[in-house]
Amino acid sequence: MPPSRRGFLLASAAAGAALGLAPGTASATARPRPFGRYGSPAARLTPGTLYVDPHGRGDFTSVQAAVNAATGGGRTLVVAPGVYRETVSVDLTRTDMTWLGAGDGPRDVVIVYGNAAGTPKPDGSGTYGTSGSATTTVRADGFTAHRITFANDWLRADHPGVPGTQAVALKVTGDRSAFHHCRFLGHQDTLYTDTNSLGLFARQYFAHCYAEGDVDFVFGRATAVFEHCHFRTLTRTDLSGAPYGFVFAPSTAGANPRGHLVTHSRISSEAPDAYYKLARPWVPSSDRTARPMLTVRDSVLGAGIDAVAPYATMSDAYPWQAQRFAEYRNCGPGAEVTVPENRPQLTAEQAASHTREAYLGDWAPWREADRHGRRP
Fold first, then answer.
1. Which one from 189, 194, 214, 306 is the annotated catalytic residue?
2. Tens digit of pLDDT for each residue in 336-365?
3. Is 216 a catalytic residue?
4. 307 or 15, which is more confident
5. Which secondary-structure segment (H or E) carries 7?
6. Catalytic residue among 59, 108, 175, 216
7. What is this structure's pTM?
8. Is 194 a catalytic residue?
9. CB under 8 Å to 186, separation ≥6 — which residues?
10. Would you say 242 and 214 are in contact if contact means Cβ atoms under 8 Å apart?
11. Per-residue DSSP letters for 321-369?
12. pLDDT of residue 27 exceeding 90
């Protein structure tokens, strides 16, 4: 089982770093071939492949520098093991980009920074806000990542006077965005699945991924499918009672027939039993016509989820009962149906339209999952 983010922080082997590689992970300096099976600057996978290594054995030592150089579409970045402490932004023009973590798994390649929504900008122009807090932002269509950790290590305990505690690890807004065997570490608003505009219904796919946090840590208005993923809720020392937070906070546009789908996944917790809600709807001020949608099916809900009242309302004007929340064939103590009106269930006929194929249409990213090498 993946360690909690706090454990990951405490296990840092890098002196002076807020986040580092877990003990036992081979460091980049110990690797004679930092890019593994993916070639090197002297023997590129393709002419458009760029190599990133913090120790100078690639084309660039930072991910953002490589992104800046990867103009046009269809470029590949091979990222050597290491901790990349930086913010990264992929703009709209860099379409169909692929990032390959060259380690044995996502723990080996970590992109991390520590801004929160309430963090003041260095130029004095205000604070970052939720979107601006993101460690990594991907706006381009057709983005794919394999075996990379995206993290935000901003901690409430270190900043007691900051009211804006949202701290995004990854914000992704492009259509056809896929993440395979990746990790998303943070606390509040860890993984932001968004779109580039209200009228666009971006499709996103997460397979064999791990996400952790406490408040609304998987949220946004994209059509997002999570398959074979692990979600973990964290404990909190700043609260004395339940609820500690919420796993999902979709903000699906009312016109979008597909929101968040979680299938064949699991939710575990390091917090006391029943201290977390499964979801609450987010109707943002930018779209009061939103009708959040979440379906959780064929998944294991651990004891951390409040089985009696798994859903909550974020705003009284938009009660959760008026949104599109549903479950189907879940199991585990957090999935027990004790108050039926609090656990809307799909029929078998309804469930047939809540599949990855129905949500993603003519895009089938699972067919490409093994194209770039072994699974960790």
1. 189
2. 999 999 999 999 999 999 999 999 999 999
3. yes
4. 307
5. helix 5-10
6. 216
7. 0.93
8. no
9. 5, 151, 152, 153, 154, 167, 168, 169, 212, 213, 217
10. no
11. GGSEEEEES-BSGGG--SSGGGS-B--HHHHTTSSHHHHHTT--GGGGT
12. no
